[in-house]
Amino acid sequence: MLFPFGGRPLLDIIILSLQNAGCKAIIINTHHLYKKIDSYLARQKYAIPVITRYEPEILGTGGAIKNVVDFWDDGPFMVINSDIVTDIDLKKVYDFHLNHNHPATLVLHDDPQFNTVSVNKDGFITDFHDSPPLPSHLASGSNIHLPGETGKLTFTGIQVLDPQILELIPDNIFSNIIDIYRELISENKKVCAFISKQYQWKDIGTPERYNQAVFEQMAPEAFKHAFPNWLNRKIVPTGLKGDGSDRSWYRLTSGDKSIVMADHGIRKKGTTGEADSFVAIGRHLHDKNIQVPEIYLYDTFSGLVFMEDLGDVNLQTVVLNAESQDEIILYYKSVITLLGKLSITGAKGFDPTWTYQTSHYDQDFILEKECRYFVDAFLRKYIGMNIYFQDLEDEFSSLADKALEFSVNGFMHRDMQSRNIMVKNNSFYFIDFQGGRFGPIQYDLASLLVDPYVKLSPSVQDQLLYLSVETLSSLLNVDPNNFLTCYKYCAITRNLQILGAFAYLSNISGKRYFEKYIPDAIETLKHNLSALKNREFPKIESIVRKISNFSINYRADWSL
């Protein structure tokens, strides 16, 4: 009842619909999370009385009605399910019932997936079936009957009942209201159908139906936000190739207009989730005039976020298609300047509570999310080496300390690689910023330069690194030597994270296309370790030397 629909609790939507229809008082049958419902209602100020009745044991659709028998007066009463979304005119339904002398009116709708209620040509219900007459993909056109024919429709969960119905429901036991209606029909009594033709109705009793209903409500609204003159045309979703997360991506097209939708999935916990961070950080960066996609509309409970369409071209694409090294360097020079702005400006007013993992890039995070990730996901589960985190913990701790010693902190993207930098109208845009937090700009720079998707040569990496120092020093007023020192260690921690992620995505998520980048990532890690003057991490170096000739088609029983 309390989960949101389009940013509002569904319970609130239903209550206001009943209030606007002229309802004088409402009673809500509660069971699961009843204390939260009571607490929510206590904070609201409705124009009519709204009370609850706790049901310790589920009594069914009939028993729930009988459970509140003391609430009813001698007039007809309306019953409505709590897991539906509709714009059906409830006052019109109630007035329809008042204009006939039969004991029950059920609101019916045409939905081939649930059409189980038979209706005759006179508008009376004749039977209830256990399953739809046809699979939904075979149903065509409307099932609403034509004159002289019998059709099948869906019971919407909205009904108006005369008090005499209460006498037919047994006390204090489980009962199904449909069985009561079958009994009435068998006794040649009439159950009326109010057929909903021009209205919208959705049963959202499953995650899939809930998600679809939210999409159908929000997508047109998102187009109106993006394009104020947009006409209400058909919206066609097309799946896009995803990234390393579990999100699903779609391009929504309507005429010659398009936007992009990310589906993060329904929130599973009450804490800040990935969708919350994506929205909060994305809106913050956009407000700071940093080049990120504009977010038009969102519902973080359903996980749906609608945003600007930046096209399909990213930095990886333009680098791999570049005709010269000079062209590549010009691209990166522009990105590095934007990176400085992202770090400095993005940090201003950044709220750590927006983050869904940790608020800062600190030692604990490095040890758990990069070093241990490397050992468990890559060395142990992917390569098959008999090595534990504790075997390397002393070197990992030293690495974490040095990666933070001369850090120049600001807003840190944490996944600053070529696939997360889009190119539109010759401008670069940052995406996938939901992992942002406070941290060293050196880490984002390292992510950009050691990126296995583009495989920049060591000489190009060095050239860009020194170019970065010149560019960022003027913006950040930092010591170049200390900046470079921190960069070297951040490049290693990032490399560990990359290998852990590629292994996890390949082994656990089944995204095998990440495997082809593993050999290059190993080679880069080997190069960065060997570039340290004092050979500070001999055990890590030893392992990397052993796996430097690793092939994705080969597994061995590795050990120290």
Written description of the protein model:
The protein has helices at 10-20, 34-42, 60-66, 90-98, 177-186, 207-226, 274-287, 315-320, 325-347, 363-383, 393-405, 441-449, 458-476, 480-507, 518-530, 538-547; strands at residues 4-5, 8-9, 26-30, 50-54, 77-80, 84-86, 104-109, 117-119, 125-128, 151-161, 191-196, 201-203, 236-240, 248-254, 257-263, 295-299, 304-308, 409-412, 421-424, 427-430, 437-440. By secondary structure, the protein is α+β, with helices and mostly antiparallel strands. The protein has three domains: 79-162 and 181-203, Spore Coat Polysaccharide Biosynthesis Protein SpsA, Chain A, CATH 3.90.550.10; 207-308, Phosphorylase Kinase, domain 1 (2-Layer Sandwich); 315-547, Aminoglycoside 3'-phosphotransferase, Chain: A, domain 2 (Alpha-Beta Complex), CATH 3.90.1200. Strands 5, 7, 8, 9, 10 and 11 form a six-stranded mixed β-sheet that branches. The model is unreliable at 134-150 and 552-560 (pLDDT under 50).
